[in-house]
Amino acid sequence: MRDANPIVGKIARVEPALDKPPVEVLAGSDEGLTFEFADGRRARLDRTDERAIPLAGLLEDFRRRGRPLYVEVDPVTERIARVRLPIVGRVAAVRSTGDGDLEIDIPPSHARHVLRRDHPNFDASAELLRSAIAGRRPVLLTENDNHELLDLRWYPDPEEVPPFPKPGLPPKWWRRWPWERWPWRWYLDLWELIQKLLSWWLSAVPQTVADDMFALANGLSCQPQNPSAPCITFLFPDDGCYARAHEMCRLMGIQGVPCRKVFNYGSLYVQTKNHPNCHVSWGYHVAPTVRVRQAFLTVQEQVIDPALFGGPVPTATWRAIQTDLNSSLVGTDASVYYRSPNGTTVMYDASYVDTNQTLQDFRDALALRSIQDGPPPYAACP
To answer: What pLDDT, in 10s, does the model give residues 227-278?
Structure first.
């Protein structure tokens, strides 16, 4: 649905006030609830709506947190038809496709956001995107479940959105090599190399540990009807893999298990029962990896990704399910939160502030989807 006149913004107040559990407030109200937005427009949640109780609690939580919303309303009754969560961020790039559509890169999101050529405001939206890139100003971007743009506008409080990080990567290996020692101490270097090789193999974990790390992460998968912290949003595959991977690496670190990450860049397509359309498309995907000890002096890198698999899998298997034979794999250490496809921009989140906020955003998205479309997995998916 493409609402010609949606309400986009923050909820200013609700009548009657939700100072008690929503079920009690709705029971005592003949009219249901009325949500007034910052621009003065209103939307009603009817008490007879089967979504009323869980949706009321979620909307009140959004009001308290100052979360902007995209609300489709019935033009006659002003009743809430659907609620969507806009993306708040800065546009990094826009690419034209062969059929005239525009793909929008808004880091660190890994979903493929598309402005269709047949969008009624295509020209105005394209111009706003160009201005957003040139001015580095944040936007509110709302899309449907296919990640097709519905609405685009400036974010009213740009100071709330952090700027792009400064580009940077660790120095190249040849700049770190102690050239001044060659060849005078080559024999000591060779011995150190042998020691490091043995240490590298011994530091890899047994298969049982990799299985335990998968079980640890998977055990925190969100319940669709109540996706509350600290759960991880494996059942919302649309977006957020960067935050899921960062949180999983944190949990493994607490257990003393060394962790790295693998990024896969390409035109990725995955079939899944956890999306109403039975599939998702990504511009990249990232997940944690652990080195698993195999035969003497050999290890296998295995990926921990409960969003796609039921256990640890080799990197090649993980890549294959994303169905782009020309995709590009890049390994990084666990500290990298986001890495652009060309490697020129890297984000870190040592404090886990963005990780926690992103996980909460997608818990909200999972809750909204479960309320409005039913919880995953979807029986219609093969």
So the answer is: 999 999 999 999 999 999 999 999 999 999 999 999 999 999 999 999 999 9
Q: What's the distance, CA 93 to chain centroid?
A: 18
Beta strands (DSSP E) in the chain are 7-9, 11-15, 33-37, 42-45, 69-73, 80-84, 87-90, 93-96, 102-105, 113-115, 138-143, 149-154, 260-271, 279-293, 299-303, 313-314, 328-333, 336-339, 346-348
* CB-CB contact of 86 with 79 (8 Å): no
Cα-based angle 227, 155, 38 (whole degrees, multiple of 5):
80
Kindly provide the residue ranges of all beta strands, DSSP E only, lying in 25-97, ordered along the sequence.
33-37, 42-45, 69-73, 80-84, 87-90, 93-96
Question: Residue 95 to residues 43, 106, 126, 130: CA-CA distances in angstroms?
Answer: 36, 12, 11, 11
- Output the CA–CA distances (angstroms, integers) from residue 223 to 146, 230, 371, in the order listed: 23, 11, 12
CATH-assigned architecture of domain 204-373: Roll (3.10)
Give the total residue count for the chain.
382
Instruction: Give yes or no on whether 7-84 and 204-373 have one common fold.
Output: no
User: What residues does each domain of the chain span?
Assistant: 7-84, 88-160, 204-373
In terms of Cα–Cα distance, which of 78, 99, 102, 80 is closest to 152? 102
pLDDT per residue as tens digits for the range 310-349 = 999 999 999 999 999 999 999 999 999 999 999 989 999 9
Q: What is the mean pLDDT of the chain?
A: 89
**Phi (first) and psi of residue 196, to 5 degrees:** -65, -35
Contacts 24+ apart (CB under 8 A), 215-218: 216/251, 216/252, 216/255, 217/248, 217/251, 217/304, 217/306, 218/306
| Residues paired with residue 123 on neighbouring β-strands, in sequence order | none
Tokens of 344: 């020129």
Q: Does domain 88-160 have CATH number 2.40.50.340?
A: yes
Single pTM value for the model: 0.85
Question: What is the CATH number assigned to the segment(s) 7-84?
Answer: 2.40.50
